[in-house]
Design goal:
This protein has about 150 residues and is α+β, with helices and mostly antiparallel strands. The chain has 2 domains: about 45 residues; about 100 residues, Immunoglobulins (Immunoglobulin-like, Sandwich). The chain has 2 helices and 8 strands. The strands form 3 sheets. Strands 1-2-6 form a 3-stranded antiparallel β-sheet, with no helix packed on it. The radius of gyration is 31 Å and the shape is rod-shaped.
């Protein structure tokens, strides 16, 4: 009887070290994950490009244009931008997107410092009219520019 009790005790004792090892491994993995998050970060918000932009709207007898020039800062990838232009003061008349996407360079290109892009405005604007222009970074949803441009 004594031998039988001793075998049963050994079986019961073997369960505890296995569970202990599993718990230690789980705790180690959790601690490593927490340290990795602190060390490498979770990713954080995407960086919005910062560029110094100059805007010019011109009324001519042939075609009205809106020119955007990058005078310094980051290069802008045009395919990552949405450009909104609305006539002020009501702000309700939107310049059609297909017209604003008719830029003088491909929309997949960069707007690097020292470079400009020009789009046609088919709304027959007049000198002195004001156009509200907003440039939004698509992936972050943040505005890069929000300005008013007077038509010359």
């Amino acid at each position: 009887m004594y031998i039988k009790e001793q075998k049963e005790m050994k079986k019961e004792e073997a369960v505890s070290p296995v569970i202990g090892v599993i718990l230690m491994v789980v705790i180690t993995v959790i601690i490593a994950a927490v340290l990795a998050v602190f060390a490498f970060g979770v990713g954080g918000p995407a960086k919005v490009p910062a560029a110094k932009l100059k805007f010019e709207a011109i009324n001519s007898t042939t075609v009205d244009t809106l020119t955007i020039s990058n005078t310094g800062g980051d290069s802008l990838i045009l395919s990552e931008l949405t450009i909104y232009a609305r006539l002020a003061p009501s702000g309700n008349e939107t310049i059609p997107n297909q017209v604003m996407n008719n830029w003088s360079i491909p929309t997949t290109a960069y707007l690097a410092p020292g470079k400009s892009i020009t789009g046609n405005i088919n709304n027959n604007v007049n000198p002195g009219d004001i156009i509200n222009v907003q440039i939004m970074h698509i992936s972050t949803g943040q505005l890069i520019a929000d300005t008013r441009v007077t038509v010359h």
